[in-house]
Specification:
It is built from one helix and eight strands, in the order H-E-E-E-E-E-E-E-E. With 126 residues, it is mainly β. The strands form two sheets. A five-stranded mixed β-barrel has the order 4-5-6-8-7. The protein starts with 7 loop residues before the first helix and ends with a strand.
Length: 126
């Protein structure tokens, strides 16, 4: 078991720096993103950082047409489930592309979305 705890805060700090990092179980080698306390495969807590390329394919998406309460208007925008090349999936906002051009199967790459102290996951066409 590792003494280092890889937290969600660490995940977003790495993302802010432009690095997409998953965690890999040292016991069964399963990848997880974002970080979890216990491995979904073997239920151990023995993680190591696993850098990812950040490239993948849109597996599914939805278009947000009404902004969430308290958020500035910036609609419509697309949020996608991206299947990364390493086999794990991650949810993120699609940027630099009109919503009517977003489609499943589209190749994308990770792009950190930084707004003040907030960092979000974004994807742009590859």
């Amino acid at each position: 078991m590792t003494d280092e705890v890889i937290t969600l805060g660490h995940f977003f700090a790495e993302a802010r720096a432009g690095r997409l990092t998953a965690i890999r179980c040292r016991q069964c080698r399963e990848l997880a993103i974002p970080p979890k306390e216990y491995c979904p495969g073997c239920h151990e807590r023995d993680w190591e950082p696993a850098p990812l390329r950040g490239t993948g394919t849109i597996a599914s998406y939805t278009v947000i047409r009404v902004p969430p309460r308290g958020q500035p208007a910036g609609t419509p925008y697309a949020v996608a489930v991206v299947r990364l090349d390493e086999g794990v999936s991650l949810l993120g906002r699609v940027v630099d592309l009109p919503v009517d051009a977003v489609k499943t199967g589209l190749l994308v790459r990770f792009l950190p979305l930084v707004d003040g102290q907030q960092t979000a996951i974004g994807f742009t066409p590859a």
